[in-house]
User: Fold these one by one.
Assistant:
Number 1:
Amino acid sequence: MSIKVENVTKMYGSQKALDNVSFEVKKGEILGFLGPNGAGKSTMMKIITCFIPPTSGSVAVCGADIDSQSMEVRSKVGYLPESNPLYYDMYVKEYLNFVCGLYGITEGIEKRVERMITVTGLGREQHKQIGQLSKGYKQRVGIAQALIHDPEVLILDEPTSGLDPNQLVDIRQLIKDLGKDKTVMFSSHIMQEVEAVSDRIIIIDKGKIVTDRNVRSDSRNVEQVVLVEFDQAVSVSLLQGISGVTSVEDLQSNTYRLTGVAESDLRKFIAEWAHKNDVLTLTLKHEDERLEDVFRKHTS
Ligand code: ADP
Ligand code: MG
């Protein structure tokens, strides 16, 4: 497990910013941490990266405890803080060299900096002063800074906020690429943003997790949840016989929630079953689509 958060509560004075939060992030996962402003996203990320302690509860990163093994945690984690403070009068390379120093890296600095510049696509801008860069490129410098010590886990706090549409697409792609060999947790208050990049989404609101689910329900052998409405009532046991279906919930009004694991889209098997049994399917959709409703409910 890359990140393990157990029963974390954070009080700022009498205000509860996090309320008994627990979740785990698997190695290699891209986790989108979604929530409206003030939900507690930054607070959670600051705790995971050892910048502030929780009031109660525990967090481990790659098995290291944030309280008793904070040095180890810091070596395993790369962190892009929200509105990342950069030294605007420094040059890109100069700054990345400087960051190497902060991490106590003494050997192979030049190579490492070159690699970060390549990985984050800073090539053409590498000779500029940070203050001269566009917002998108400043973000890349921030991500390069977070990656410089080759951490296993990357924590990015609102990495796409304030970017124009083109920069947004670029940074999304960069996050996806980084997710190929790192565990990435990134926050955003924009749902579409998170859906486009994540393997998994956690929605947090007022310090509590309201949803935790996988996103890519079309990928193989991931649990799929399908909402289906027929033109007539159907027996639950018949629906349980559909290939891949593991559980069925009767939601009344001829509507059922089917959960299952299949090689391909579970909806295909349901449609085939309906066709064979002369049942008309009126609605057939992945419940993921309800994510938007969940988020709306908590942000409006
Ligand atoms: P998010 O990143 O989701 O917008 P934050 O974690 O920044 O949310 O904030 C969660 C809540 O905690 C908010 O109500 C915020 O005002 C409060 N908060 C955050 N930091 C502090 C602080 N240093 N002192 C007091 N309250 C804070
Ligand atoms: Mg924040």
Number 2:
Amino acid sequence: LFVNVGHDAKEIGGDELNKIVKSGDVKDILVVNSAVAEIYLKPEALKKDSLKKVSKNAFGYNNTGPHYKTTIGALDKFEDKISKLQAENPTVVIPSPRFETRINWLGPLVNYLLFPLGILALLWFLVFRQMGGPNGPGSQLFNIGRSRATLFDSKENGKVNVTFQDVAGLDEAKEEVMEVVDFLRTPKKYTALGAKIPKGVLLVGPPGTGKTLLAKAVAGEAGVPFFTLSGSDFVEMFVGVGASRVRDLFAQARAKAPCIIFIDEIDAIGRTRGRNSMNSNDERENTLNQLLVEMDGFGTDKGIILMAATNRADVLDQALLRPGRFDRQIEIDRPDIVGREQIFNVHLKNVKTASEVTASSLAEMTPGFAGADIANICNEAVLIAARRDKSEADMLDFNFALDRIIGGLEKKNKLIAPEEKNIIAYHEAGHAICGWFLEHAMPLVKVTIVPRGSGTLGYAQYLPKDEYITRTEALLDRMCMTLGGRAAESVMFDKISTGALSDLDQVTRMAYAMVAIYGMNERVGHVSFYEMQQQGGGFTKPYSEETSYLIDTECRRVIEEQYERAKALLKDKRYELELLAKELLSKEVLHKSDLERLIGPRPSGLKLI
Ligand code: ADP
């Protein structure tokens, strides 16, 4: 390949070669690089030979002059051939072949450098074209450090057309974010007063409860651009990409301010940073650090409000929750029956339904459903109706849709069977009754049987008391109240369930604290092993086996006493217990006012210790 043999040479084949060599006109035979033979003619022969004409143009290109050339297959064969010709024609002088090695720079250069480069360039071109050019769909490869946020903007990408009207229920949450909306609309009103608006709002709640929707509605109400992306969009296998995406996101946001950035599933980057370096994820930490840096880097006056959603706030790094960052947390729970009815109303508006389909009846049939499940049902129902060529979806279609979705939810363990719901209602009512009638229990705020994201099936919420010392009576009452759930199950059904796990955990801690830390037990005495236990590192007990046994039995006795007390109380108040449980079953949430309505004012009022 690419051997530089004269451009002024005429290529000849084997027969021609024979003829020329035999003619006796050959002056010189030169074998170049053992691959090509150049045949030079004597000057007088050259004159009459047609070669002159052939090589006219190229003549003078190099000083070897016009000549023939022929490609040699095997070198020894070529030599044989020449000697044979010599032997056959002893009268003509045939020069023996001379050998020459010519180094050709151009050839290797082209071979080894330009050629591969050319192929690369071609590939590049093809790949690029495949991806649709610099702005094509595949161009992220080149923009790996850019943020993946989707922007909803009034000009370019269609306005955010979600408003608070589209978000049903969630009244408390809406009220909380109203301030943000108002600030984005008229920032001057706030900055003039020197008010500090929260920079970050964290929406906490199980999936599908409308967190994204609410954030979008805030942008829609305020009429500002809305950037949305998920926490996992930052994380890539390449180091440094996450941090660079965060930087890029904020740079884009600054250009569009005032605006809202919404980060879904912030736990993907915001988890507590590695306590043990063994399994810490440096890339994720870098990303989180960069986010913190950016959040600190702008004041609210810039008009960027960060909203984020997670379904667990407890796994988030404390640094994220500090003042000046996500300092406002809004809980968004699965909707109760009233909330579900409102959500059904929103979604039924967009589909054609028969008059028998009402939001209230559907809400009754869907305990534990989140907003997304409800939107899903409405959509499924009209799909089913359409497949049956109906002009509107009737209750039958909704029932089919319900069955289908419940099937899916059951797999995810999100649904509660009616008899379970019954048990949960009595369990929570048990807590509520105990709390209501025990003098030192904390005042109740609400009790609900709507399942929460973190795996609890229902809960009773109490107002924590502001107190630095707690008396024995208060601790005992609190234990009694905590055991009220299981006690109610026992009183009502003569059976107990696993639903009391976290209650029992709490009670055990309290009992242990009373006996071994606060010295509140007569038989163990006024002793505390708190400090010593800490120093012992948990390996050695700071007390004897005997004391250890005593602590155990006393803990158990205290708990047993309070359990019996709760049972006695509930047997006494059985009528009230049933009243509450039934009301809970139908309304799912009861507030303090409902309890007052149902069972009268709290006997000891809100008397504290
Ligand atoms: P999350 O972000 O909490 O996972 P989304 O906001 O993405 O949930 O909700 C998904 C869909 O469910 C929404 O697009 C909406 O159609 C429906 N949805 C959820 N909550 C509500 C609500 N409160 N009112 C109306 N629709 C809702």
